[in-house]
Structure formats: C-alpha cells, structure tokens
Write a sequence for this structure.
C-alpha cells in the first residue's frame, strides 16, 4: 500500500502541485498526472488500485501505466515523499 508522508506540505498551482519536505527543506513540483497520484493516495492504495483508476482516466495501456507508476513510487519513496506499507 502506498501512502503519503504526512510531513509533506503541498499546494496546487495551476496545473502543478508544489510540495515541500519539512524534514529536508526541499521543494518539489509534480505535473498533473503525478499530482493525481498524490491525490489518490490520500487514502493508501496499492499499485493495482492506482493503475485501475488511472487507466480509466487517461489514454494509457495498463502495462505502461504500471511501469510508470512503479517508477514514480520508487522515486518518491527515495525522496521520502511517500512510503509503502504491507496491508
């Protein structure tokens, strides 16, 4: 299950999501699709749940979606923006 780091501050600005890590003082900017993933993980979700929603909302093949979501999660996890937990 993928969940947000609750210490991340965020705000929407036009079609982007701006974020700040309180822990390390870094700023981040997410495009609209990444921002949608952030929105979706307000409540913890699995990769499968995320992809199921995103495939319906965007013109993307399920295998491509899964690859991209996993890459995004790994990157965000390495920055401490999200975490994963077992259900």
């Amino acid at each position: 299950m993928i969940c947000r780091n609750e210490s991340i501050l965020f705000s929407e600005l036009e079609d982007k999501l701006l974020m700040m890590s309180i822990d390390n003082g870094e700023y981040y900017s997410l495009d609209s699709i990444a921002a949608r993933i952030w929105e979706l993980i307000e409540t913890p979700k699995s990769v499968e749940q995320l992809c199921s929603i995103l495939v319906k909302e965007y013109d993307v093949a399920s295998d491509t979606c899964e690859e991209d979501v996993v890459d995004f999660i790994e990157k965000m996890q390495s920055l401490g923006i999200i975490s994963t937990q077992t259900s």
About this structure: The helical segments are 32-40, 47-57, 62-78. The longest strand covers residues 8-13.
